[in-house]
Amino acid sequence: MTFSLAGRCARTGMLGAVVTTSSIAVGARCPYAAAGVGAVLTQHTTDPRLGPLGLDLLERGMTPAHVAEALKAVTSRADWRQLAIIDREGRTASHTGASCKPELGEAHGRDCVAIANIVRSAEVPRAMVRIFEADPEAHLAERLIAALKAGDEAGGEFKPLVSTALLIADREAFPYVDLRVDSAPDPIAALAALWRDYEPMADLYVARAVNPASVIGQVG
What we know:
The protein is α+β, with helices and mostly antiparallel strands. It has helices at residues 50-59, 64-74, 124-134, 140-153, 187-210, and strands at 2-8, 15-21, 31-34, 38-44, 81-87, 92-96, 104-109, 112-117, 163-169, 177-181.
């Protein structure tokens, strides 16, 4: 009942993830990202502890494939877990446990990995990857949201979607983008609208944190 994608922008080095599901507040427990490190998605019978642990292992120099094996080893009932991992070089790994429910799937592409479970079509992850790869010059946020729309159009879920989240890490310890729709009738459209409103302010919010003198007179 969840589909998601983790991706990297080769042009900027940004790393991020996007996810949607038919349960409330998916952004609180599934996507994780760290600047210069990577991104991790944990879903199906979600174990949120795996996201921060996966990022820590990536930062220590482990490859995504080794991180996936380590996460499977430390979580109880790995057969119920679905994971996706990307590192700062664009390498990817994924895991779908044997007890995860269909339709389900995984797809890997250039600088991206998509996973899905309890969806209408196993084509969902592949559709997401194709759209993400289609315009590498576009902003990472645009590419991630487009991938989410493509997954929905390729079949989406059996139940109505309720929540979605967009998380992007750039150069700082805090997220460059952290937008969530915790409960809405059309959460993907709501997320796209949030990004349109947030995009003009995104760089300014970073500047306020790292160089406040450069934005004197601009408050908020």
